[in-house]
Structure formats: C-alpha cells, structure tokens
Structure prediction request, 802 residues.
Amino acid sequence: MVNHSESKGNFANYFDFFHLPQTFNLDRKLLDSAYLKIQQEVHPDRFARASDAEKRQSLQLATFANTAYRTLKNPIQRGLYLCELHCLDPQLETNTSMPKNFLMQQMELREAMDDARGQIVPLSQLQDQVISDLKKITDSIGKNFDELKQPEAALIELRAALFLERFLEELEQRITDASE
Amino acid sequence: MALLQIAEPGQSRNPHERRIAIGIDLGTTNSLVASMKNAIPEILRSEAGHTMLPSVVRYLQGNRTQAGYEALAQASLDPKNTIISVKRFMGRGLNDIAHAKNLPYDFLETSGMLKIKTVQGDKSPVEVSAEILARLRQLAEDSFSDDIEGAVITVPAYFDDAQRQATKDAAQLAGINVLRLLNEPTAAALAYGLDHGSEGLYAIFDLGGGTFDISILRLSKGVFEVLSTGGDSALGGDDFDHALMQYILTEFDMHELSSNERRALLMKCRDVKETLSSHPAVLLEFAFEDGKSIQRSISQDEFAQMTQSLVTKALVSVKKAVRDAQVDVEEIQGVVMVGGATRMPNVQKAVEQYFKKTPLNNLNPDEVVALGAARQADLLVGNKSKNDEWLLLDVIPLSLGVEMMGGLVEKIIPRNTPIPVARAQDFTTFKDGQTAMAVHVLQGERELAEDCRSLAKFELRGIPPMVAGAARIRVTYQVDADGLLSVSAKEETSGVQTSITVKPSYGLEDGDIARMLSESFQTAQEDMLARALREEQVEAMRLIDAVNNSLASDANLLSPQEQHTIQEALNQLRQLVANSKVVDDLRRGIERLSEVTEDFAARRMNANIRRALTGKSLNDIE
Prediction:
C-alpha cells in the first residue's frame, strides 16, 4: 500500500497541492494542467546545476507530485484517498466481507468469463458490460461523496469497484491472449 | 587549461554567458558526441573529420591504449586485447552473455560484473567504456578549447539498474560530470519532436548494435511524456551478425576456428549484412588460415529467413509496449526509426506491417540520439530562457521488487511508472525475537526471485526483540530522474530507527573509482590534488551562483536574521574560493552554505508551486 501520511511542504493534502477542491468529481483537464505546471517548477531537470539542498528538495517534490497525480487520476484510488482524509480505514486487506448479492454477481461474471474462454466477441461483450457497471458505481460513489456527504456509503461501493477493476484487468489480459 | 574566472564579491557572473554542455551517445558499435552550436545541435568531428568513434578499445603492452578506428583496424590481429561491443557486458555477469563461445576474449567471473583478461591486466566493462568516454570528452574539450560543464549520457531505455549504474560509473571514471542519464529513444524523440514541431502519439523504434528499445510517447506543446517503454537489452544488429555466422559455420561444418578467424569471420558477416541493406544479394568470401576458402552468395530473402526469430522477438516487445501505453496502434501517428540496424529491409518491412504506416526515416538513425542528448544537456545547464524550456517525463522500464518468503517477488514499483518515484512497503518479522532481516532487491517482470535480476542484498540489523509479527519494517524504494534506485529500510514501532541506503552491487564503490583514477588513467595525469581543488572551486562557484540567484528572486521569504546567516556563509565561501588552497576548507564552506540554505530551498519551491497554479505568491494567499 502507498503511504499517504507523509505530507510535503505547506500542503494539507493532494487536492490542496494541485489547488483543486476536495471533491470526488474533479476536472481532469485542470488536474493534468496543474500536474504539468508543478513539474515545470520542481522537476530535477530544472535543478541540474543547483545546490545539493535544492536538488534534494526537487527530487522530493517531483516524487510527491507523481504520487499525488497517480492517486487523484484514478477514480478508485481518489475515492480511497478521500476516505483516508475522512479518517475512514478502508481495511482492504483485513475486511473482505461483501454484500451477498454482490458476491453472487461476481460469481456469475467469473462463470461468464470462463464460458467465453478464447473467444474475442463474447469476451468483449462482457468487457463492455463490466465497464458500464463500473461507470454506474463510480457515479454513485461521486454522489455519495459530493452530494449526500456519505463517505461511509461510498467506501462500501469503492470496495465493490476495486473488485470490478481487478476483474476487468484479468478480462483484458484474456482478450489480449485470445487475439494473439 | 582555462583559468578560473572569479567574479568580484557581490557580483555574479554574466548571466548571458553560455555554458558548454555535451550529449554523448555511448553506443554498442559507435559512439558520438554532440553539442549546441548557434542554437542547432551538431555532431562534433574528430581531427580526422570523423563523426563517429567506433566503440573499440585495444590494450597494448606498456600501458598504451588505442580507441576508435585505430583500435578497430587491429581487431582481427589482436582479438583478445581488442574489446568491441563492450556495452553488451555492462552490469552483466558471465552467464548473462549470449554467444560467449563465439567471442575471442578470456573472460573472468568476478563478484557481480565480468572482467576481461588483457595484456594490461583484468579490465572491467566499466573501465573499457571509460576509455571511450575519455576520448569523447577530449574531443569535445579540443573543439571548444574550454572546459565542459557537464554531459548527458544516453542509455538504452530498457537498461536495468545495474547497467545504468555501470554507465554512470564509467563516465565518472572518465572525469565527466554527468548531468543526467537519458533514455536513447527519449533523446531521439526530443530531437525529432523539436525539429518537426510534432504533436501527438509517436513510437520510437530503436534497434542499435546491441540493444533494442521501443518507446511510446505523447508529444504536446513543450511536454515530452513517455507512456511506456519496452525492449530487450541483449538484442541488436550484432545478433544478426551472429545469426549469419552461425548459419555459415553450420552449413560448411566449421567448428574449430582460431580467435583471429572468429573475429575476422564475424566482421565479414557484419559487412555482408550492411551491404545487403542496399543490394538484393551479396557474395560472402572468406579465407581460412589453413589456406581453405569458402564462397557463398546470400540473398536478402535468405538473410531475412535466418534472422526471422530476431525480428519476431522485437515485435513481441513492441506489442507489449503498445498495450502498456493503453493506446490503440491506429492512434500512433508516426514511427521514428533509430539505430543503424533499422536500415535492414526486413526490419523496415516488419515495422510497417505492424503499425500499418511507412516508418519515418528522415533523420540520420546513427546521429539522432546524440543530437537529442545535446539538446537536453543544453537545457540542463540552464542555457534556455524559461519560455523555451520543455519538460521531459520518463518512466522506469522494469518493475522493482523484493524477495518474499518462498522465493516469490513482491513488486514495489511496477514498470512504466513515471520517475522520480518513491514507494514504501511494510514488512514484519517471522519469528519471535528476530533481530535481523535480509532484504533482497530485484528487478524484472518474472514471479520468481531467481528469474529476476538481483540488484542488491542487505541486512537490517538491530531490530529490538519482539514477538513475531510485531515489528514494522518499512522498506522504501526511491528511483531518481536518472532511473537509478536507492533503497532504505527502517524499523518503526520501537522508536529505534535503523536506516541503510544501498547502491546496487554492480556499481563501483567510491574507493574503486578513486583507485582507478589514481592508476595513471588517461584522465588522471594532472596532479590529483590540483584536480580535486579545482573541482571543489567549480562546485563552490556553482553554489554561490545558485544562492545569489535565489536571493535575488525570493529574499522576501526570509527573515532578516535568516538573510544575515545566509549572507555570512556566502561571503565566507567567496573568500575561500578566492584565497584557500585547502580542499577540505572549501568542502566545509560548501557544506555550511548548503546547510543554511536547505530550508530556504524548500520554501522557494513551495512558493513557486503556488505561484504557478494561482498566479499569486504564498504571502498573498495567507
């Protein structure tokens, strides 16, 4: 797991670092441009001739910028990070209990993937379905964080989204294997 | 040698003065050095007018050493003492080397990196490479009649940590200040992108003499972002030579060749390969020492067939890189061809078929990497105004991990993560009262530790005795902008902190470098003390410059007391530069000034971030 506790400089958290509001729904273009503007300032290439003190600072801040960017860029990581800021422990490694109907759904998805073994068309259809499910959950996570102010509810959905994301990765691998 | 210029106290050097920086392409077959001249990157020529220096070093009796064309000319006569393609041995052990039996050298396996027996003793690949680098440095110094501020040295993007560290060590040994290690395809993208004002997705297909890289980049205004990189650091034009040679040896049932014959036949095969790039068929003729000779006509198609598996190997890496970049092949606007081996028609054809586009061959594939490196070197020494600067974002090519119980690898930093990057992983003890823990640092994509490259092993000792599972050991991997790794480990629960930083075991110890420098090496002929003093003076001047510039722009971030402390340290160091001949005094002065400006540096960078994002300074916000 990434260690987020270490904060750098005068910045309260990753959102503050990029000068963005602390919300789940964020303007990706603003995030990208803030990231690039910060790297323009702090990247080690700007300090190749600088003092050792400045080189160290530059390495730390550029590293921090990459970690912050990677976390906020990915919706699930962003959600988990928001939970952390709300002092909610996601317990990803210890707590694996999930609602029963979600587990049923997971099993069905796995069966569908196994049935479609080696066949690109049904695998791709399954992929489309999971992407659309993931999108629905993500929208709901956003609503829970930003409108309803229910981070606890968002966390339950985030754990489901993590499951789907991992499933999607496996599915993509199978599609690639099938096309080779 | 140029005299040091010392500005009057309080006055910094002319800010418009251009600093000389060079880009070096340290290739498997040839090496080049380039620099900016009148805003255009240019390959520097030797006195004889050559742009390329063959990467060949010959060791002779009596401490004499030849390099380049001079050494290449003798390669077949003195194969054991004439080292070619040394880049393939960098950061490698003997069992990593393919075709070792086809090579004429007497190898020695030492701990970590292999060595080669020569008339001048056992030479490591780092020392051989340093000979080439020293020649290039000399060439640059002669062509400017001035000192070189620093160099960007290119490495294959797919080089692992051991190979990168070995390259950096070689440069240090050759007396070069390394500004940055730059990935070869990234350097090529820079040269191509800046020349053509390109925007969009590009693939760089770089097949050199000994290495293959594929990088996918997104180019947008002023930003070069590497999305993924892949390749094979043991696949290059040399392997095509070996494939042809193996074919000939099998067909004519020739197995007992002398070292000289082997070298000569291999070089003949290289000639045939090169000629085949512009002719449909070539006649290979070779005379053996016993008077026998062979003749064999080779066609392009036949050559393509015997090297098919090599081209396929390259394409597997290409597909993986495209997938890692999460782009569709159709989205890629252009494929830039780099490296002499891309001249082979079967390589061109395979690339065209996969990308469904005519490859871009409008840059000299031998020169583009050095030209890109020269541009980056010019940027790094600060010769560009803020508006002309570009930003280069690169990635780590291979995953970094740690060995777990049972020999499995836990990945800590996955491949294609943007650098610089740091990741931490927590571990705990396995037994009650366990006071030490072994950390084995690995690089590679395979699941078993034994299939990955071992970069370093170290032990963390002094863990206070606790029940199993109670200790909390945080292992942190930090990869810097050169793609080089450092690892530290810390026990955190007890408040007792043990921390260690390791350099990969393939790198040279600082002591080794000092020893080699003092062994009347090419670069160390001037008096060692004078050299050390001069280096400290240059370092001090650089620091004084940097602090002056910081004070000029951001003195308002300091209290009057803090300003006073910094001024004092600054004046002290200026005095030392002007008057002191004692290296240690200068070093202490530098340390003092660095120390008192550390916090200032942090504040300035934070302020710059705020300014960049809001257009306001920190003071305005708070």
